[in-house]
Design a protein that fits this description.
The complex is a heterodimer. Chain A is an all-beta fold. Chain A has no helices and eleven strands. In chain A, strands 2, 4, 5, 6, 9, 10 and 11 form a seven-stranded mixed beta sheet that branches. A four-stranded antiparallel beta sheet of chain A has the order 1-3-8-7, with no helix packed on it. Chain A is globular, with a radius of gyration of 13 Å. In chain B, β5 and β6 form a beta hairpin. Chain B is mainly beta. In chain B, about 0% of the residues lie in helices and about 50% in strands. The chains are: A mainly beta, B mainly beta. Chains A and B meet through β4, β5, β9 and β10 of A and β5, β6, β10 and β11 of B.
């Protein structure tokens, strides 16, 4: 049973560019979560999916952020018109039906120059 | 709104000693869950232990136990017989029915634990 995988692991982009990250959850996990973690802080919740439905969005998720999970398997997180303040680690997690524990991937570290 | 407070930014502990990492929480939800995660320098968040607010007994997982005191709103993590590999950041987190979201976790700022030989 492989864990949660994320791609890419690192992304450097220039301000104003669009970026897209991918997350593949653990198989049979129907819930998928996105978090953002800045240096010295705990992760902050962004959004979550149950199967293909996006059920929650944090106030942190501005209009420049969009997430999808079209077939209820992998998910993508897109940031449009990136800003320097978007520089952070973007973490994906998944959980099994009926279980509360969330299992995290290795994260995608975004640097906006 | 939900809030997690971890008051120990850093801790140094001798190898083989027991460690207690503090966590207090605030929520108006009648039903909630508390978690501890470990984040080594590699960056990956590792799930350690979970406690439901209605669980009668404190949760235990190997060397980890959660000292849950509901009236005090505290959920301290106890690590017995610490090992060098326990050196990492430790985060306390909460899920609730409302506030930050039913399933999205609210994390504290973490405690940096260093185990010394």
């Amino acid at each position: 049973d492989t864990g949660v995988s994320q791609d890419p692991r690192h992304k450097i982009t220039k301000r104003g560019q669009n970026v897209t990250f991918r997350c593949d959850p653990i198989s049979e996990h129907n819930r998928l979560y996105w978090y953002r973690q800045t240096l010295g802080q705990g992760p902050e919740f962004l959004t979550y999916f149950q199967n293909e439905a996006q059920l929650e969005k944090s106030r942190l998720l501005s209009d420049r952020f969009s997430a999808e999970r079209p077939k209820g398997s992998f998910s993508t997180l897109e940031i449009q018109r990136t800003e320097q303040g978007d520089s952070a680690m973007y973490l994906c997690a998944s959980s099994f039906p009926g279980k509360y524990e969330q299992y995290f991937g290795p994260g995608t570290r975004l640097t906006v120059t | 709104a939900q809030k997690i407070t971890q008051t120990q930014p850093g801790m140094f502990v001798q190898e083989k000693e027991a460690v207690t990492l503090d966590c207090t929480y605030d929520t108006s939800d009648p039903s909630y869950g508390l978690f501890w995660y470990k984040q080594p320098s590699s960056g990956e968040m590792i799930f350690l232990i979970y406690q439901g607010s209605y669980d009668q007994q404190n949760a235990t997982e190997g060397r980890y136990s959660l000292n849950f005191q509901k009236a005090r709103k505290s959920a301290n993590l106890v690590i017995s017989a610490s090992q060098l590999g326990d050196s990492a950041m430790y985060f306390c987190a909460m899920r609730g029915v409302s506030g930050g979201g039913a399933d999205g976790l609210t994390f504290g700022k973490g405690t940096h634990l260093i185990i010394q030989p």
